[in-house]
Amino acid sequence: MRSILFSTAVLIGSSFGAFAETIEIKMLNKNHVGDRMIFSEELIRAEVGDVIRFVPTDKSHNAQSVKGALPEDQEAFKGKMNKAVEYTVTEAGLTAVVCLPHQAMGMVALVVVGNGLSNAEQVLDARIPGKGKAKIEALIEEARATAPVAETSADQNS
To answer: Could you tell me if 58 and 29 are in contact, meaning their C-beta atoms sit under 8 angstroms apart?
Structure first.
């Protein structure tokens, strides 16, 4: 009986990781339309358990979270210059990500986990200089506008 319970617990615990996704984001000097100092995706939708991997495709970039601009219990991260860094999503909400040397030029991204937008005001209040601040504001507006609509009870009864 113990071995059956243990096996079931292991199976359930290991299945969590089976649904996790690895999302790769490139750090670029220029994208295909000519935008400079940019992440390959700026609005990143993820789920708890996903891993987001920031890859320095071009040199002189890093990726890191912004103090005060992530969910309360989400661990902050800071990648080294010219090195890939992985960020494991553990909490729903918004996380602002910047390339430290290029954030003032607008090299920022916004991670949206689940439909969590509850910490949007905290993200907006965080210190992000220059064009990065305006871009984060625009990304939050985009996240709000493109958030999946929850089913209503009428939809569920149809």
So the answer is: yes
pLDDT one-digit tens code per residue, 79-93? 999 999 999 999 999
**How far apart, in whole angstroms, are the C-alpha atoms of residue 148 and residue 77?**
27
Q: What is the pTM of this model?
A: 0.83
In this structure, the number of other CB atoms found within 10 A of the CB of residue 15 comes to 9
Coil, strand or helix: which one is 87?
A: strand
The residues that bridge with 95 in the sheet, in sequence order, are 111
Containing H/E element for 109?
strand 108-113
The CATH architecture of the domain made up of 19-147 is Sandwich (2.60)
Smallest CA-to-CA distance from 67 within 58, 51, 78 is with: 78
| Structure tokens, 86 | 């992985």
